[in-house]
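Example record

Each entry pairs one chain with its bound ligand, heme C.
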Amino acid sequence: MNRTFPRPQHAALALAMLLVLALAGCTAQRRLSDAELGLTPAQARGRRVFDNNCARCHQPYSSRGLHGPSLQGVYKKEFLPSGRPANDQRITETILHGRDKMPAFGDSLTTEQIDTLLSYLKTL
Ligand code: HEC
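Structure tokens for the complex follow.
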């Protein structure tokens, strides 16, 4: 028997493992649709506001920080990273006036956009 050639079963196993790894990588990276996330139309509009204004600095679905702290589960925790209570009032203030290295959005976002944004943040 020639031992230098790998057995076909081994090749099949290696292929299967590669496939599993590739699939696992894809699910970790893939962006879920609004429907998959179960977002209402208002929350989906808030997601667009987030994508266009916040996503470059904040991760919505990962606990890793970017240029600012992760916003995963921001409303599910009692406190914001700064230690202030995680509620509409404090988060709206942060968005309107900015904070430290975070820019202010008071001049660029409408009240309606901020409302939908908050409704989206509550789904995180
Ligand atoms: C240029 C980067 C940048 C952008 C864009 C940005 N942020 Fe931030 N954000 C930060 C940084 C940096 C902090 C941490 C500030 C600090 O030191 O307290 C922060 C903090 C926060 C906090 C936590 C405040 C606290 O009290 O701990 C919230 C909530 C937040 N951002 C929401 C948003 C939302 C919503 C948007 C989009 C409208 C946004 N950010 C856009 C950089 C950014």
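The two ends are 59 Å apart (CA to CA).
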